[in-house]
């Protein structure tokens, strides 16, 4: 049962709505002689009929109107816009294909002297004797990049988790710009910092300590007294890629719905359990994308690595041994020793190998990312 005030309000609303549609219903009729449910039903029926009667003439008028004359210039503009957007979309792919074609064309002279497999697996680098083996440079690049990612990924992920899940707004607003500032520092500044700070630290502290306590492990054995080596280059690279991984992981974890966190906390989970079982699985594809971007940045870095890695064309066996990445090889020698026969083709071959390795890793990472996304869906 409705109270008196509620009944009066409902009657006033019914009579006003009925009057709007052309139905004359007084409060007295609605209260005594008419059934309110019947009036409400009649109101909706009449409203539907009124709307239908208004729409039908308009539709008939539109259909009876003669078709507008065709405007060829509008169709032409639409097609031109579509083709232009398609060209802009395909431009990055065409640029990569052009780079591959140009590098392959410049590498042909050295391929005429030996097989590609011999170039990739040979450890001999004697340009004056026309012996160009890329194996030490490829392995050196993988060593420096791999150690850098091992050093960079865990701190980057933990930093992003802290900023998203634990940090106060004041701390977050302070730390995020500082991390973005690190990403904008030129690589040569990182290289100078590595020569001044990291190399002496490795030479006088890390290498002696590791040799004393972990020297029986080949990975930590040290025979290089200078401090220039894989570990120095990896530390510098790790500092350079941390802002990239943190920025991407931070933005991805920010997009995780708060409902997942609230549901996990509501069933008694701690904050860390919520992060581990609710936030990280949802944000895993984006975090993997950030790691891939960091790897690409580290793999293609030149100046900072060139200044601290040692630049010795020899396969490293320890993190303290010197190395010679492909990027350092190209930057050190291009333009200075091109008078040596086939040297230009060898450097172009090094650039081609570097580009192919980066493309292969990015494609593989994209496939893995797609598979992980499908499993989550």
Please characterize this protein's 3D structure.
The structure is a single chain. With 377 residues, the protein is mainly alpha-helical. The chain has 2 domains: 4-64; 110-376, Orthogonal Bundle (MetI-like fold), CATH 1.10.3720.10. It has 14 helices and 2 strands; from the N terminus they run αααααββααααααααα. A two-stranded antiparallel ribbon has the order 1-2. Helix 6 packs antiparallel against helix 11, helix 7 packs across helix 9 (230-254) and helix 10 (258-266) packs antiparallel against helix 11. Mean pLDDT is 81; it is low at 6-11 and 13-44.
**Which ranges are low-confidence, i.e. pLDDT below 50, for 5 or more consecutive residues?**
6-11, 13-44
Distance between the termini: 50 Å
Q: Can you write the helix and strand succession as a string? A: HHHHHEEHHHHHHHHH
Radius of gyration (CA) equals 35 Å
The largest β sheet comes out as:
2 strands, antiparallel
Q: Order of strands across the widest beta sheet? A: 1-2
Q: Average the pLDDT over all residues and give the rounded result.
A: 81
Strand and helix map with partners:
Blueprint: H1 4-20, H2 27-33, H3 36-64, H4 72-111, H5 116-121, E1 125-126, E2 131-132, H6 135-166, H7 169-183, H8 187-214, H9 230-254, H10 258-266, H11 271-299, H12 303-308, H13 326-333, H14 343-376
Antiparallel strand pairs: 1-2
Helix pairs in contact: 1-3, 4-14, 6-9, 6-11, 7-9, 8-9, 9-11, 10-11, 11-14, 13-14
Key phrases:
mainly alpha, MetI-like fold
Question: What's a concise summary of this model?
Answer:
The chain is 76% helix and 1% strand.
């Amino acid at each position: 049962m409705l109270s008196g005030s509620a009944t009066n309000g409902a009657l006033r609303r019914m009579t006003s709505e009925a009057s709007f549609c052309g139905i004359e219903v007084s409060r007295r009729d609605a209260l005594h002689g008419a059934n309110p449910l019947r009036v409400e039903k009649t109101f909706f029926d009449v409203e539907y009929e009124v709307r239908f009667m208004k729409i039908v003439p308009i539709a008939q008028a539109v259909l009876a109107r003669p078709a507008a004359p065709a405007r060829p210039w509008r169709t032409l503009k639409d097609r031109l816009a579509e083709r232009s957007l398609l060209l802009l979309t395909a431009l990055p792919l065409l640029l990569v294909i052009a780079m591959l074609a140009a590098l392959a064309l410049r590498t042909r002279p050295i391929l005429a002297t030996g097989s590609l497999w011999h170039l990739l697996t040979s450890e001999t680098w004697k340009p004056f004797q026309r012996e160009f083996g890329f194996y030490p440079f490829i392995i050196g690049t993988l060593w420096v990049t791999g150690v850098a990612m091992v050093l960079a990924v865990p701190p980057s992920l933990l930093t992003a988790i802290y900023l998203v899940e634990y940090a106060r707004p004041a701390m977050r607003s302070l730390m995020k710009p500082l991390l973005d500032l690190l990403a904008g520092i030129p690589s040569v500044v990182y290289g100078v910092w590595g020569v001044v700070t990291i190399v002496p630290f490795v030479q006088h502290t890390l290498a002696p300590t590791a040799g004393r306590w972990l020297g029986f492990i080949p990975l930590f054995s040290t025979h290089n007294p200078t401090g220039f080596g894989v570990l120095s280059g990896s530390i510098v690279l790790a500092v350079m890629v941390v802002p990239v991984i943190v920025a991407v992981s931070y933005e991805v974890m920010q997009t995780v719905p708060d409902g997942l966190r609230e549901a996990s906390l509501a069933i008694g989970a701690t904050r860390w359990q919520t992060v581990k079982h609710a936030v990280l699985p949802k944000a895993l594809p984006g975090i993997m994308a950030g790691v891939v971007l960091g790897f690409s940045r580290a793999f293609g870095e030149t100046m900072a690595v060139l200044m601290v890695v040692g630049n010795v064309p020899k396969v490293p066996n320890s993190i303290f041994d010197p190395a010679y990445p492909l990027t350092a090889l190209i930057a050190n020698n291009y333009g200075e020793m091109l008078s040596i026969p086939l040297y230009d083709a060898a450097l172009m071959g090094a650039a081609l190998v570097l580009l192919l390795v980066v493309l292969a890793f990015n494609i593989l990472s994209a496939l893995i990312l797609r598979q992980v996304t499908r499993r989550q869906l």
